[in-house]
Amino acid sequence: MTGQTYWRAVAAATGGADRDAAEAGVRLAYRTAGLAGPERIVWAGSPREALRLLGPGGPEAAPATRGRSVRDAVRSAPWAAERARLHGRLGPRGWSEHWNATGAGLWESVQALVDRVRTGLVEEVAEGPAQESATRLLLLDAVLGQHDAPWLCAFDPVEGTPLEGLAAVAGAAGWWWPYERLAVVCERPVELHRDEAGRLDRGDGPALAYPDGFRLHAWRGMPVPGAFLAELASLTPERIRDEENAELRRVMLEHYGYERYLRESGASPVDRDAAGVLWRIPLEGDEDVVMVEVVNSTPEPDGTYRTYWLRVPPETRTAKEGVAWTFGLAADAYEPVRQT
Q1: What backbone phi and psi angles, to 5 degrees, belong to 16?
Q2: Fewer Cβ in 10 A, N or C end of the chain?
Q3: Segment 148-171, tens digit of pLDDT
């Protein structure tokens, strides 16, 4: 099976790798590149474990043990040749249209995930500038497996094509490192949680987790410490005010709820007019949070009117100005239909 639906599923796949299929794909990728297959294929529970195997002091660190990296021959060269072939057949405009209809739909969310994983790996593995440099160099040797899905979707490799082996590994496993005598292949994540925009997002545990314990925590795409998420269930207005990190404080407010925070923190409205009620939350070291409380003009089935909270720019000075802003209007052009 090929196509965007398949490659979207590959990029987001979790659970144990198909090791037999992945190893067959690795050996096919080597043969396609004109190389002898690796003498050994070693499995790692995550890219973190792979880096520790291959990095300074690791059991596979010695060049004599693994040989030189063959990533360029196994991945980069056939990749470039296939892109050139498609570009030559379709032309610049045709290639752009083809990319937009295939891989482009996956690129942004998958690349954001790859970047986040790389950052997390450097933070966990590297101790000091020298090790950080070595870690970043090792990451350049990696083939991204399932996370190469956007490009493989555009190339749509089938049996007998130069990218068949790479596609087989991507469909069966995670990242992998190809060397002359050794290939290190990683398991896929066991958990992946994302929001509607494709960003890592989870409020009660890791947003991305691998079977060896490597994990990343995030709230709507923003990296957060795991201990911070555990604290969200017991937040108070005082704890939110005391948080010095502005980004974490925003997460706290989003989780706690602006309406609840206003109600429980004893806030007072700063403006009231026919459009609604304007509230302001001063935050030290950050821009104020400004909300307009409005009442829907259409009654609910039981005859009550529903209250909505609208976040507006911090420079907003009146409720009418804030509501008008949500419609893209100036305050003097907006006429509310119901007084709150």
Answers
A1: -60, 145
A2: N
A3: 999 999 998 878 889 999 999 999
